[in-house]
Amino acid sequence: MLETGMKAPDFTLADKDGKQISLSDFLGKKVVLYFYPKDNTPGCTRQACAFAGAYAEFQKRGVEVIGISKDSVASHQKFADKFSLPFVLLSDPERKAIEAYGVWQEKKMCGKVSMGVVRTTFLIDENGMIEEIMPKVKPDTNAEEILAKL
Asked: Any idea which residues carry the catalytic annotation?
């Protein structure tokens, strides 16, 4: 179980263009790392658009935003193009980062139990340490909550 003050697990995943991106590429910058269930679903779209709307403010503060889901590179490409998402989207179909960060969990919806990504955001400091963990965040207010903390 990850906790604040721990070293954030490094990973290398493909972005929407197929380029390999590692968390360690961002050492020296704060990173908002958010895990979400699926591209083009209502909550995930609202969350991504909220981050896109606040992205200039994150950049002004020297903070990078990275979204991760199990979706394919092609899905991320379409999602980013459709909603003009300016930040990094990483594809994790094998759930390497998803499981390293402990966000692959049992979920209950309409009485049905299944495994899936629980919407969770991590704030990682310039040294790659976990500054804050925000479990089960609300898609509409997640970006603003983080800006308020910065």
From this structure: 44
